[in-house]
Amino acid sequence: MARTLSPSVRAVLSAVAAAAVAVGYVASPTVGGVVVCVLLAIFAVGWPQLVGLPIPWQRTALLLLAGAGAGWAVLTSGNLRLLAIVGALGVIGAFVLELLRRDGRQRLVDSLSASVAGVVVLLSGAAWLGMGPDPIALAVVVTTAGTLAAGAAVSAIHLPPWPHALATIAAATILGAGAALALPELSWVAALIGLAAGLVSSSVHQALGRYRAARQPLAALAAAVLPVVIAGLPAYGLLRYFLL
To answer: What are phi and psi of 149, to 5 degrees?
Structure first.
């Protein structure tokens, strides 16, 4: 693996991750769930390095446990009700790690908030596992993943920040609107999915690209899969609120 990864390479990896989710769920919910779990693990490993958390291996262990707990909670309950418990335990774990530090606890607020943010992202990612086997759920998964991939592909183009963001949002929204024509059961929700995917892709690409560690392999991988992981909860919410 290359020593550093450019922003364009990260964007391409985001598109690959989104496409993998779509292909996995088309194959079967089990395969799609495995793909999602792999993405959660990649994020958990790379996030502490991306945001420069102290004693990163401890934060990685916390995030891996939170991701595993979130996945178990969704798979066993079939919904997201138990995620609140997993989230609470994750926040408590983040506080405990700060209390165990013996390095003077520099950047205490940054460290704690970044750890909690990582837990929240994993909780959102676990929502992918609760989409269910219904054909309309599969349509939402494929549309969400497809629009994320489109947004990530446009993110690979070198443009100034604002034109870059607008092009990413436009591409994802247009693809979502096209999905509405191909999948009439989604109706106007498909365009809303595209808009949300474009906003997520553009904001994550611009925000995380400012981190100096974002070019390091593990950190870059975490930044690449973040848009796909965090889109789980919005996709689940749109499915349950508007379509089921």
So the answer is: -65, -40
Burial class (CB in 10 A: 0-12, 13-18, 19+), 177: middle
Tokens of 130: 């609760």
Q: What is the CA radius of gyration of the chain?
A: 18
Residue 95 contacts by C-beta under 8 Å, 6 or more apart in sequence?
Answer: 112
pLDDT tens figures, 56-82? 999 999 999 999 999 999 999 989 999
Q: How confident is the model at residue 203 (pLDDT cuts 50, 70, 90)?
A: confident
Reported as a pLDDT band with limits 50, 70 and 90, residue 1 is very low
Domains: count for the chain: 1
Q: Is the pLDDT of residue 19 over 60?
A: yes
Cβ-based burial of 181 (10 A; exposed 0-12, middle 13-18, buried ≥19): exposed
Range of the domain at 166: 7-243
Distance CA 228, CA 57 (A): 23
Classify residue 2: in a domain, yes or no. no
CB 46 within 8 A of CB 213: no
* Encoded amino acid at 46, one letter: G
